[in-house]
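Hi everyone, sorry if this is the wrong subforum. Our group has a chain we'd like a structural model of before ordering constructs, and none of us has done structure prediction before. Sequence below.
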Amino acid sequence: MGTWTRFAVTVAILTGCWSAATIATAQEFPTAKNPIKIVVGFPPGGSSDFVGRTIANKLAENMGHTVIVDNKPGGTTIVAGSLVAQAKPDGYTLLQVGELTQAALPSLHKKLPFDAVASFSPITNVVESPLVLSVHPSLPVHTVQELIAYAKANPGKLNYGSAGVGNTLHLATAAFEEATGIQMQEVPFKGASESILSLVAGRIDVMFDLPQTPLPFIKDGRLRALAVTGKDRLDLLPDVPTMSEAGLPGFVFVTRIGFVAPAHTPDPIINILHKEIVKAAQDPVVQKQFREKAMFVQTSASPAEYRASLEKIVTKVADILRKAGVEAK
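Answer:
Right subforum, don't worry. Here is the predicted structure as tokens:
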């Protein structure tokens, strides 16, 4: 047997052994001694935490297995991302990903401890949610077109709340400014809850945010909703038009939340996780829980489809931030 023949046989044997080991690992997944941990890059109690815990509870019920949520806030989700990127790729440590926040990281940081897409094995998206454009009632505008006209007539006068550059709130506003040709002054806060309270108090004028945050204030008249950024109106705000209905055809801006595992997690395990997370998300009770928060289940047909979505949104967000004059630091 020649050298090259022996080499080819050795490779074939090793490949066969690796494939067999992978199949065996997948057949044993998950084992009773290893809980599945979902790492969430935000504190308990917020929208992201709600998604993680809702899915974790249903996964545990369906799989008969322990599934826990581990909140690791900090560094605009970099702390959580680093932890999962460095975790063992065995399917027991997952990262909950806010698609827009994750996609913004390469445009905000010259050096990251991980690649926003390549360091992970995408599993599936779970939900998407539109945002609501709200203003303080003292602002003399009642429609999106009136807001645009007021901003153009008063350049630099309007300010808006965000949770920091690259956050969903900031990205939505930057996209809106680009679409309308207006400019507003950003006032960053530590989070959406601080920002919305400043809007209610009249310290800022305008804000994009997920519906559940401003909804109570819209309902009691302390905020005025001008439009929602989804394709359809919200049942929770039936009288509030979409952006398209408000005079900006095609303006749709939604935030999506899904799950990834460390890179190189075996495909059979990723496929199991995809099947189970999709099953959990599409449960009627779970869908109702999400709808009550103005979140709508939108699962990915496959892990490959979710990867393509993540790659596409990185390019889109980079374009938004470039046009807004944001440079990586």
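For your construct planning: Residues 3-28 form the longest helix (26 residues). Confidence is low (pLDDT under 50) at residues 7-15, 17-22.
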